[in-house]
């Protein structure tokens, strides 16, 4: 029981696939260093050459005209599927309102990102300021330590001279 809805076997496609298969088998033979690898390559590539030469002269079939009104009901002629057009209009209105909501949400997101950016810039500035103050404080602590070492040295000298 044959299925008549299947298309015909296209000889060009068949030979193209056959040639490609022979080339692939030839490459496999070449990789594993088996005999007849070169012969398979030559046979496969020769088939491919013939297929390409024949397909260069192959005629193309005209495309059938699409029924765009089935996809876009507003293209339907008068008296055709007014219900479909109404459904389409409803869907387009819903799509438009969804786009408006999305646009508002994106606008809000942009504002939030802008305020986060401003806050981060302020924090970076404050952090830089604090870093500079900490460097000054560290310098003062270092100087204080040097003075304390000098005082301790003088005090040791004083104590050793007093004995």
Summarize the structure in words.
- The mean pLDDT is 84.
- The termini are far apart.
- The protein has 163 residues and is an all-alpha fold.
- The chain is built from 4 helices and no strands.
Write the layout of secondary structure elements.
Blueprint (H helix, E strand, L loop, with lengths): L10 H21 L5 H20 L11 H4 L10 H81 L1
Helix pairs in contact: 1-2
Please provide the ordered H/E string of secondary-structure elements. HHHH
Uncertain residue ranges: none
Give the averaged pLDDT, no decimals: 84
Structural class estimated from helices and strands: mainly alpha
* Oligomer status: single chain
- Helix segment tally: 4
Q: What's the helical proportion of residues?
A: over 70%
Number of strands: 0
What is this entry, summarized?
The chain is an all-alpha fold and 163 residues long.
What descriptors fit this protein?
77% helix; 163 residues; mainly alpha; 4 helices; elongated
